[in-house]
Amino acid sequence: MKYVSLLAVLFLLSGCVSTATLRGTGDLGVVVERATGSVQIVETSGHSILGEITGLGNLAHATVVFSRDQRYAYVFGRDGGLTKVDLLTRRIVKRTIQAGDSIGGAISSDGRIIAVANYTPGGVKFFSSDTLEPLAEIPAISADGSRSKVVGLVDASNDVFVFALFEAGEIWLADMHDPHHPKVTKYTNVGKQPYDSLLTPNGRWYLSGMFGEDGMALLDLWHPENGVKRILGTYGREDAKMPVYKMPHLEGWGFYDHYAFVPAVGRPEVLVIDMNTWTVVKHIPTRGQPVFVVGQPASRRIWVNFAFPDNQYLQVIDAPEQQVIKTLEPGKGVMFLEFTPRGENVWVSARDSDKLVVYDTETFEPVAELPSVRPSGIFFTPRANHIGW
Amino acid sequence: MTAGKKMKRFLLIVVLGLNTQIVWASDQAPEGARRTELIRLVREDCGSCHGLTLEGGLGPPLLPVTMNQKDAAAIREVILNGLPGTPMPPWARFLTPGEAQWIATELQKGFPDEVR
Q1: B87 vs A: CB within 8 A
Q2: What pTM was estimated for this model as a whole?
Q3: CATH, domain A243-329, list 2.40.10.480, 3.40.50.10330, 1.10.486.10, 3.40.50.1820
Q4: Which chain A residues are Cβ-neighbours of B51 within 8 angstroms?
């Protein structure tokens, strides 16, 4: 009897030890510390920093995607570095320098292929998500022989990636069913200087913003045979445009009914687009030129941050009313905002105040402030479940 | 010329020289907190397009090898007025001409790092 009790106690104790070291990854995130080549691993349930990983190179512009099991983060760095990081052990698993200058990346719908968008040399490179072994490359060389920077790279359904060529004004679609032999479809003359693109959550519309002209380019991925359509061509032509100090970023855009909310280029406005007619139906005046316009999950709110010199502000738009309802000042240099997956909190980076601020999205009150060295992007693991992010 | 007139002329030249010095000094390099702020501005905000290390991105590199291919005065003008038709905006609203000149010459020498 004593023997059995001893066994029982030992069994219970071993259970305690192992559960103490296990945790999930669904509430984890990566914060980019852009000046020090490091990232912080954070958890959003208790609003805390779990640790830091150094040695990720030049993260002055960095973006992150996650493995489908939310165990690993893939960090795309400015110096062309691609780093696979284990979120649980907080170590670098593998790192490669794959180009001279890189702007972003994506992961395929089946999670097997990482794609990287490069400025130098202009093009897209593909790697195994498991080993980071190179699989294929698509140089962004147009019919006239010129080479472009690649922007707006997104993953679409069925192992397809879509991206744009900044200088050439083209949109290309890469079918990666055979990961070593991409099949590329090219749409030329889509507009002047596409600077970024997004994919709608239903995976249907690929939308590119233009820097060199008003308007956007639209590709219907459910009907790619219809080609690229130019839309919103006349917005803002009646006013002079203001100089742009930071390019807007098209990502995580806000929806309400059949309306989409996107940043205007060169004016302090969020544009409301009717997605039935693809026309601008309202210009919402904002505190500065928007950089990110992000929908709060499961809510009627859309949040906006701004470019220099107005980058100490964060504004909240009520989508049905199509107007700003709140202005916040989290700190200096508000670079990025990321919602927890069900929207109860938003994490904001204040680069020039060296901190992260976490807000309660219902009360707009800060619930936590965390120290961070020149933070920029914040990426949470549920992005693994979203196409096009 | 009498000794008195020579003295007056000498004094006039000294005073004029001093005034020129004062005017020149006010358009000189930024100091202290303003200098720190300008270093931060170039690295972080110009760096939005030119990279934190100024190695380039959407915009071209701002490293000594490229910056020494131009006159500092020409660089100053681009900083202040931008390059219409390209993404390079004008920064005249945020900088005096003297500060833009200082940035131009520092870029040619190798721009200082932020101190943290």
Answers
A1: yes
A2: 0.88
A3: 2.40.10.480
A4: 58, 60-61, 78, 101
